[in-house]
Specification:
Number of strands: 14
Helix content: 40-55%
CATH architecture of the largest domain: 3-Layer(aba) Sandwich
Shape: globular
Structural class: alpha/beta
Number of domains: 2
Number of helices: 19
Strand content: 5-15%
CATH superfamily of the largest domain: NAD(P)-binding Rossmann-like Domain
Distance between the termini: 36 Å
Strand order of the largest sheet: 4-9-8-7-10-11-14
CATH topology of the largest domain: Rossmann fold
CATH class of the largest domain: Alpha Beta
């Protein structure tokens, strides 16, 4: 039987074990800073269910110092790049590091450009619950989110700066590369609405490109898409021929992006199910490192998942503690009924920073590794002087989430605990505004510690400021949401 091609997991005996790779990379990341934690990860016998504590430890160990956090990030990246491999079309396997040095085996990609037919907007507005908020109504919504603990105050401040500087929305001086252009959370619709240039990369699937071309036609920007040389530029032909495969044609994509004129903003919005998520995340990271070696004008953009482990400011801890005190009677009753399994407090009293653990077991260790890889790259690139936009996005009703019945039910019941789950159009527009802010301010303010960079402008939906540790409320949220979950 023919094995996988492109970027693949290394062989472990007769198989390509995702668990073995995950254990080793986490252990390697921890080894220099937390050797005890590294040994614990190496000896974890049930990685599929036991990974949660080890991913938490990666963040905890990084709080020792700035140097500790950057060492974990750099060593984790180095381990992954040293271990993942590439299998070419003939079945030959080699190191990931050699992928860009191999002779070109595929025809280079050409660029087709599609101009939108719509008007260009120069005022920031946000779709929210059937309305389009702007001006005073939008500022009031931001204030309400801050009061309710849905976003960090710095998030509202950053969006407020974009509202106050509408000229920032003119992104014609940038080339916004959207890797995973069809993703629901990406900035593509907003950049096109504001008249900007989007360089789109996604798989050669007609349904993706049909949707992207329709979006482009509605707005006033320009879409630059990869096509075989000589492709006609009518929409039906572009729909059938556009696309580039990051997993299997990485050098081809790198060559195409290398020749893009203008400042590159390399936006990572890729997602795949299961183990493929780690493979494509690794491919994107290899592409990122290669382009940064070849060009000195590459900015990076990431959307972080809210369902991860983060160090959070003391103000978020105090907000959660006030809520915990207000819910005393109901909390005690539920804890007694559940035998103490439900509704643990989110943080020990008075800690600063707090440790928010919102990892969701159902998402699995491959998802956690793929997202942690992006956090590591953001930290390392920022330290090296790159402009980096890294923002924690809110829980959102995306198609990938709603395919998981347990997560869909949990999201439907989350409001009972003070967590707001966003619609995709609200999330991607809000995140696009934060991207604009970061691009116009050189990556946002400088912080002493990497965890503070990650916490800045976070739109976590309330997970950082609710009274209860998210996993201790997850089962109850699922039960409460079963009747309202969308399918």
């Amino acid at each position: 039987m023919e094995g996988p091609r492109g970027v693949v997991f290394p062989r472990t005996g007769e198989s390509r074990s995702t668990s073995a790779l995950g254990r080793t990379v986490v252990a390697d990341a921890l080894r220099a800073v937390d050797p005890v934690g590294a040994r614990a990860a190496e000896h974890e016998t049930d990685w599929r269910h036991g990974y949660l504590g080890h991913f938490r430890r990666l963040v905890e160990a990084g709080l020792l110092s700035r140097e500790a956090a950057l060492t974990i990030a750099g060593d984790g990246l180095a381990s992954l790049h040293a271990r993942m491999t590439v299998v070419d079309d003939e079945g030959r396997e080699g190191p990931l590091a050699d992928v860009f040095a191999a002779p070109a085996r595929h025809e280079p990609l050409a660029t087709a450009t599609v101009e939108g037919d719509g008007t260009v907007e120069r005022e920031f507005s946000l779709p929210y619950r059937g309305e389009r908020l702007r001006g005073g109504a939008l500022r009031r919504r931001l204030d309400t989110w801050v009061t309710d603990g849905v976003v960090e105050p710095s998030c509202a401040e950053a969006v407020g700066a974009v509202i106050a500087n509408p000229d920032w929305l003119d992104l014609r001086d940038q080339r916004i590369v959207v890797l995973g252009a069809g993703a629901e959370m990406g900035p593509l619709p907003s950049v096109l609405r504001w008249g900007g240039d989007v360089v789109a990369v996604d798989l050669p699937r007609p349904e993706i490109w049909r949707r992207l071309l329709q979006t482009t036609r509605r707005h006033g920007g320009r879409l630059h898409l990869p096509v075989p040389a000589g492709t006609r530029t009518d929409d039906p032909t572009l729909t059938s021929h556009a696309g580039a495969d990051l997993l299997h044609r990485l050098p081809q994509v790198a060559e195409w992006l290398r020749g893009t004129e203008g400042r590159l903003v390399l936006g990572n919005y890729v997602y795949a199910d299961g183990a493929t998520n780690v493979r494509v995340a690794t491919a994107v990271d290899a592409l990122t490192a290669q382009l940064r070696r070849e060009r000195d004008d590459v900015a990076l953009a990431f959307l972080a998942t809210p369902t991860d482990v983060y160090a959070v400011p003391g103000d978020a801890v105090r907000h959660a503690e006030r809520g915990y005190a207000r819910r005393g009677a109901a909390r005690r009753a539920l804890r007694v009924v559940s035998g103490g399994r439900l509704l643990h407090r989110n943080y020990p009293p008075g800690v600063d920073p707090g440790m928010n653990d919102s990892l969701v077991p159902q998402q699995g260790p491959n998802y956690a590794l793929a997202k942690r890889l992006q956090r590591w790259r953001a930290a390392v690139a920022r330290e090296q002087g790159a402009v980096v936009s890294f923002t924690v996005a809110p829980p959102t009703r995306t198609r990938s989430v709603l395919r998981n019945r347990a997560l869909a039910a949990a999201y439907a019941g989350a409001h009972r605990f003070g967590i707001e789950v966003f619609e995709p159009s609200t999330s991607n527009t809000l995140m696009a505004a934060l991207l604009v802010h970061d691009l116009r301010t050189g990556g946002g303010p400088t912080h002493e510690q990497p965890w503070q960079d990650e916490a800045y402008a976070a739109a976590h939906g309330g997970l950082w400021r609710v009274p209860y540790a998210p996993r201790s409320a997850l089962g109850l949220a699922v039960l409460l949401g079963l009747g309202g979950a969308r399918t």
